[in-house]
């Protein structure tokens, strides 16, 4: 996820519409959440980040956001029933990869290297890669940093969940974080994360949910626990690197089909972001999840799943329509 500015049931029908988190938190050998998981989990090793997966069939690779590990995709485990192999890695400093580090360190490129290594290690073909917030930057980094020959056959489409291609605002881009975010604020944020991350968790957590609504207490507590288990030093490095990125050129010339899913009541990004992103790449497809904020897959997992299936052209979902 993208943080709020500090100064400012998984087996159910995925087209149904509950409004709470699906399923209990996943266990993590390096962090909190010692309860059951809808996924099979794999520890990180010297070469690969840790990951969790369920199902068999077409790969659906879900990349989590800043400070919230892959347990956040518990509600998408239901998509295994639609013929998808649902894979959710944990990136450096998070969950199953708490102590794992890519060669490139705490950078978006380094995390994308880990994702690419996992794609190759699992021999994934025709994968749908969907990144949430920071995870969207990793997915776009795959498109920017990998050759067309590497992408061909491996990655069929890239999706983003409630994310801007440029975190900082600029005269030609008023669609950054909160609509007004500067490099100085990013540096201040990273410094605060290093000094007292645990004290910041409640504020960061609040940025996840729909504006004008409070999440169920149990759900918010679960996400706070996941956040608290992250490595603050890595989070600070990643925040600074996100602020350096500008994926607008990548979207303009993307050779892979793109789509975006937005929360209709995001606290972090305003509705004009969708139109501005489509202006970068007119072929990009967009859907908005009503009643959700920055994390629609957490807030309304089955409504999100239905929208995702439409985006990726799921035959069963198309028949239902």
**Helix-strand pattern:** EEEEHEHHEHHHHEHEHHH
| CATH architectural name | 3-Layer(aba) Sandwich
From the helix content, strand content and strand pairing, which structural class follows? alpha/beta
Could you give the distance between the termini?
31 Å
Q: How many domain regions?
A: 1
CATH class: Alpha Beta
Structure description:
The chain is 36% helix and 13% strand. It has helices at residues 108-121, 134-145, 148-151, 183-206, 217-228, 232-244, 248-252, 272-280, 296-299, 301-311, 315-320, and strands at 40-42, 51-54, 58-63, 84-89, 127-132, 155-161, 258-263, 285-289. It has an eight-stranded mixed β-sheet. The longest helix is centred in the middle third of the chain and has 24 residues, at 183-206. The chain is globular and about 40 Å long. The relative contact order is 0.18.
Please sum up the structure shown.
With 321 residues, this protein is an alpha/beta fold. 36% of the residues lie in helices and 13% in strands. It has one domain: Rossmann fold (3-Layer(aba) Sandwich), CATH 3.40.50.
Summary keywords:
alpha/beta, Rossmann fold
Topology:
Layout: E1 40-42, E2 51-54, E3 58-63, E4 84-89, H1 108-121, E5 127-132, H2 134-145, H3 148-151, E6 155-161, H4 183-206, H5 217-228, H6 232-244, H7 248-252, E7 258-263, H8 272-280, E8 285-289, H9 296-299, H10 301-311, H11 315-320
Parallel strand pairs: 3-4, 3-5, 5-6, 6-7, 7-8
Antiparallel strand pairs: 1-2, 2-4
Helix pairs in contact: 1-2, 4-5, 4-6
